[in-house]
């Protein structure tokens, strides 16, 4: 039988009010904004191969994001969500995990997925909802997922993945797998009830989960000052009795080191950890909003100066692991590869109409089969009205 | 065989499932050492340990979110929501996550291992918040299975099917019958197929359809009607999603008449779906309009519970109206 274990409080005899801002949590940083390590710091052990993989993933994601925003503007895809300015947070954290650890994303972590090995072609197939999309063209662009890469399929509702991560990590612990789950979410999603539910349960049940908050300052147009009154998200971890780290999300080495330590705590000590990565959403929330309507260019410029890609690039240049020309050449190559993959993917047709009833259940019910037959008969009758699928039902 | 009430049958099903597969875990509010407020999980923590039968914090959306995650990892979680009336904080997790998990990922991931157990229904003086029958909200959600047993034998067989079914199942237990219904139940494992209705009693003059605790009400109404010389066919849907329209249609083609009796408020209760489907499938066989006997379109009242409920007398009157149409 469990017992009441909450520590009994000390007694005071006059009203003692704790200030709502009493807990100030510092931000862990290794590189300054120019990519120079602070004096006397211990940098995480990252060999050249890993460093270059992190860097090339950052470059790739930046190219992908910029190209796909343009593709949306051209009307080639319906929607896009960029991670511009936040590449270090996702890629640095993914790099610190084991490949078999589960990653659950919110929707702005394409960097983590690319780091795991999701190919340009796979990205494009999803973005164009075509027949080769792993998700069978069922969800809006950027709702990626891949079982082989241990990256859970994204869903739009905010925060729902947080308690799911707790449950997933419980299963990993139950199997004694030595693995953990890392779940991403934004500071806006941390206002959802699921955030509270997931973190509280993780602390109580002691699961190997890392709750990675990308605090990028905005939830669509709502600035953090209208989202919360406390000192960001990190102090909430302490409220749940959870180990907590605040890190500079634009410093990929610091993100890597923080996540590495969080992983150790999660896996070796079954201690869930909250990480708050401080960053800035350089682009709009999605292609459906224009940030000039709700923030100033000065503010954006201040963050552009802290660009995570530039910072890591400078660091690698100073180490002599890359040179300017090679880095630029690589970026140019990626641009071409992205464009070629885009052109390829937009030619692939949508999935066959039969896919519309698959995967609702493990096998389609009789009712669903009946509905599909009726639908196909209808499409056959009006093929011009359903040009994407009418060929397939002839 | 052993004499069990419905709660003991549930407990026995959980026991069998946990013994059979170590991936089965049972959790929710107060389900651990205490064994649940209704005692459905009694003794399971002692037998299988705290890692497989445990308390959760008081947060329904968290319980189901957690359960979704655990199921997606390959587990077979059986999550308890203490009362169906308190399932709504988890509505988003169930409707947007559980139900769409497989479809949205193109079958990359699924939560087929998940079973959600929750007591539902009135007749226990529970007022607004311990009496509701919220099945219709969930029946509007492709991707879920919804199962509602009527007695101890059905409860155990259907729950075992639900736990090992490769799809998420919402298993709603008629709490009024928890101790009231007693019957012979095998102690070992057995299953009853999901999605298949059962003709509980054959008859020729009228078809009576229901599910869960309402079958008892329908049986009482049929007894009254039989005294008037009316031969009633009674069908227990057992699953309302997916539901067995063919068995009902076949019966109605034989009897020409249909009365649906349900606990939930009248408008948009699951009986509406049954009525609409059967008039499509058996229109030319119908001798009278399909009738629905339901709760009133009010919140579930306390002092007027008896008046509110779709009881055997209201069902009996509907049978007579159908026959005299």
From TrEMBL, chain A:
Q: Does the keyword Oxidoreductase apply?
A: yes
Q: Which InterPro entries does the record associate with it? A: Alpha-ketoacid_DH_E1_comp (IPR050771), DH_E1 (IPR001017), THDP-binding (IPR029061)
Keyword annotations for this protein, in alphabetical order, are: Oxidoreductase, Thiamine pyrophosphate
* Segments passing through the bilayer: none
Which cofactor names does the annotation list? thiamine diphosphate
Q: Give all residue intervals belonging to the Dehydrogenase E1 component domain.
A: 57-353
EC number in record: 1.2.4.4
Catalytic reactions of this protein: N(6)-[(R)-lipoyl]-L-lysyl-[protein] + 3-methyl-2-oxobutanoate + H(+) = N(6)-[(R)-S(8)-2-methylpropanoyldihydrolipoyl]-L-lysyl-[protein] + CO2
Pfam families assigned to the protein according to its UniProt record, in alphabetical order: E1_dh
Its biological purpose: The branched-chain alpha-keto dehydrogenase complex catalyzes the overall conversion of alpha-keto acids to acyl-CoA and CO(2). It contains multiple copies of three enzymatic components: branched-chain alpha-keto acid decarboxylase (E1), lipoamide acyltransferase (E2) and lipoamide dehydrogenase (E3).
Q: Which family does it belong to?
A: Belongs to the BCKDHA family.
Name of this chain's protein:
2-oxoisovalerate dehydrogenase subunit alpha
* Natural source organism: Aliidiomarina sedimenti
TrEMBL record, chain B:
Q: What are the names of the required cofactors?
A: thiamine diphosphate
Q: Does the keyword tRNA-binding apply?
A: no
Enzyme Commission code: 1.2.4.4
Task: List the keywords (alphabetical).
Answer: Oxidoreductase, Thiamine pyrophosphate
Its recorded name reads 3-methyl-2-oxobutanoate dehydrogenase (2-methylpropanoyl-transferring)
Q: What class of enzyme is it?
A: oxidoreductase
Which residue numbers delimit the Transketolase-like pyrimidine-binding domain?
4-180
Upper lineage ranks? Bacteria, Pseudomonadati, Pseudomonadota, Gammaproteobacteria, Alteromonadales
Which Pfam families does the UniProt entry name for this protein? Answer: Transket_pyr (PF02779), Transketolase_C (PF02780)
SMART domains from the entry?
Transket_pyr
CDD domains per the UniProt record, alphabetical: TPP_PYR_E1-PDHc-beta_like (cd07036)
Q: Does the keyword Hydrolase apply?
A: no
